[in-house]
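TA notes. Do not distribute before section.
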Amino acid sequence: MRGALQSFASLTLFQKLTLIALVIYAAILGYATLLPAQEVPTVNVWDKALHFAAYMNFMLLTLPLSTTRRALWRGFWLIVAFGAAGELLQELSPGRQASAMDLVANALGALTAYIIGRWGFQIGKTS
């Protein structure tokens, strides 16, 4: 725990705020994922587009915290695992069911942001 606190202390103010936003976003996304079916708001957008956008934004929040390509890669897989866990846990929520296509949309959204992050590392390397 002490090491984690020291690591947090070494972050810039922007990174600290980003980390706080990331935790809040994860909590809201997790809550929304596990709502019973009758409590899920109806939105006139293709469901997979919502999954894609939600997980792309989730991954984009990790970019300021990913100081290396390896950290970026780890962030990507953690977010994919978060999405997979959410899909599996939906089986426990009344009226909800896990969907492989939702998981694919989640992963593609995270992958899109990962590619943006890798592109950013390439730009940083050449300048």
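Switch to the second chain here.
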Amino acid sequence: MSNVHTLNDIKDREGGSYKKPGHRLDKYNEQEKESQRTYADIGNKISQLNASSTKVRSQLISEQKSHSESRCELEAKYSAKIKSLKLSIKSLKRELTLVQKALSVDKITILSLETKVRCNRRYGIDYTEINVRW
């Protein structure tokens, strides 16, 4: 068993692979501190991202409210305009109907007068000298 060594034997050797327990703890403490710093940095970044996210969300909500208000205003404005135009169309349709009826009456009157003129020409009445007022 010449290959069996105790920690003290290894400790006493120079250039050996054994390191003091305190050295290992120091290295572990350094790694732990580095991990804590990294963890703290990540925590800070998360906080910054949360703050940015909250700010962007707030701006988005504000813009949505603004767009919603603008949309409502436009809808009200154009609804009134559309209603006005529909009333104008209805009024113009009524006017068109009245004009068509008047034209129809005028056409009947003209046809009736033409018929009378033809009949009177048969009897020799000359209308060139008579002033007709409408």
